[in-house]
Amino acid sequence: MKILISNIKELLQIRDTSVSKVSGKEMAELPSIKNAYLLIEDNSIADFGTMQNCPEISPDKIIDATGKIVLPTWCDSHTHIVYAGNREQEFVDRINGLSYEEIANRGGGILNSAKKLNESSEEAIYNQSKTRLEEVMKLGTGAIEIKSGYGLSVEGELKMLRVIKKLKANYPVAIKATFLGAHAFPTEYKDNHKAYIDLIVNEMLPQIAEEHLAEYIDAFCEKGYFSVEETERIMQAGTSFGLIPKIHVNQFNAIGGIAAAVKYQALSVDHLEVMNSEDFEVLKNTNTMPVALPSCSYFLSIPYTPAREMISAGLPLALATDYNPGSTPSGNMNFVVATACIKMKMTPEEAINAATINGAYAMGLSESHGSITRGKRANLIITKPVSSFYQLPYAFGSNLIHSVIIEGEVIL
Ligand code: NIG
Ligand code: FE
Q: What pTM, to 2 d.p., does this model score?
């Protein structure tokens, strides 16, 4: 099957295969071709260039993109879209003055979602989760990481990871699974952290490895959740089962978790709303991608990740949604890109780099996703007619997506 997209007003994010991420000043550059064509063959990008060089071929389908921008689909490297029910009541409680922490301390928060998840069947959770996946695909997400972490029991965690496996099998979007058994301590282990970590290490991890249910391991390294030492034990155990760390860290407090994650060669460190100078230093010249989650900051009214300081320090930065029922009930990467520009003062070029190639890197998918590169997956967003790509973050509440192509298949 050959699809030719012709008369593209501007084709964004064209890269060589050698580019796996962009850092510091490089983030300001978004290579593009104006008045372009792009040829899809089966599930891959076969060719692209200026319209003058458009080959004379007879494809199976022609899409005329006059006035429209084409860019790679979003790479959302941090989500928790597999969950049961919602936490609307906590949302209203926060409006009425309670904090995220206060809600968690009285048994709400992650433990509330864990209760709902353990009471739901695998089928019910799958059905709720697939609705969210279909929603975000239509919003332009073509690769996504999904975490467990609302089971907090052997059965619950396996149930979540099996749902992720089923989503992987049934949808064209690239999905990476992360085991987040260390998301919170269940009430019965509140005073016996060691016993819960033993359960993760001795019961959950071996089964997850045997069934190949996850590629990555995560922990919520935070005051009141997992200490740096506890997170290190989780990373150590995960690594021994072949899982690569991707860690929730520095959301509310800087407690030294970034240095620990870097020590275990984490692929990414995520949240980073609170950063101290040492955190910046340890990230320099490493392979660990910092990931910002601006819609979480927006929803919880907490600080935004200091993107400008990070980019000035020469660091790379990825953007992701954090789609989850508690801190970010939204999986809209278009909103994330706009919020990064509006609130974190990232330029549109930087934000698009952060949400495509750097997001792909934070999922180990740079070789196949995140840019317009010959041989990469044909994962594309075609916008509605726009004056320039600056419209995407500028008109932050409008849906400017006309079509989405995933693995060469037009899904919208
Ligand atoms: O990334 N911070 C930890 N985990 C999630 C929120 C989980 C929840 O509230 O359900 C996050 O924000
Ligand atoms: Fe998260």
A: 0.98
